[in-house]
Write a structure and sequence with these properties.
By secondary structure, this protein is an alpha+beta fold. The chain has a single domain, classed as YjbQ-like (Jelly Rolls), CATH 2.60.120.460. Strands 1-8-3-5-6 form a five-stranded antiparallel beta sheet, covered by helices on one side. Strands 2-7-4 form a three-stranded antiparallel beta sheet. Strand 5 and strand 6 form a beta hairpin. The relative contact order is 0.35.
């Protein structure tokens, strides 16, 4: 039986996966994940491929930004303006946990990010870091899943 070229490529793909934990403060805490990602990158050698960054849970998200206090504060302020805490949320009415805004904010940004990798290097811009945003209304222990595929 002959396989299409796409199937043959999938048969040769290798995948490396790791998970680490980040303790957050909640309330739109922004945590730079780039150092942990760079440590994981050491395992890829000179491979081309892609890195998936995934945050399990429905009240946190992942994105990229220049991780400096001004840009981080601007991001937090824009999220507060677009998706405020102090309005009624049906989730809060149903569950009474006061974090309806957290679920909505996380859904807008999303739980995952894919970064191209060339010759073992992340193809991020000079001032671009990968960050976790914890929108929950309390501190959390967040798992972060990294998966490199070549």
């Amino acid at each position: 039986m002959a396989f299409p070229a796409a199937c043959l490529i999938l048969l040769c793909m290798s995948i490396l996966t790791t998970t680490f934990v980040v303790q957050t403060k909640g309330s739109a805490d922004v945590v730079d994940l780039t150092p942990q990602i760079e440590a994981f990158r050491q395992e890829w050698k000179g491979s081309d491929g892609r890195l998936l960054v995934f945050i399990p849970g429905s009240t946190a998200a992942v994105t990229t930004i220049e991780y400096e206090t001004g840009a981080v504060e601007d991001l937090k302020a824009s999220i507060r303006r677009l998706l405020p805490e102090n309005i009624p949320y049906a989730h809060d009415a149903r569950w009474g946990d006061g974090n309806g805004f957290s679920h909505v904010r996380a859904a807008w940004l999303g739980p995952s990010l894919t970064i191209p990798v060339k010759e073992g290097r992340l193809m991020l811009g000079t001032w671009q870091q990968v960050v976790l945003l914890d929108f929950d209304n309390r501190p959390r222990r967040r798992d972060v899943v990294l998966q490199f595929s070549s």
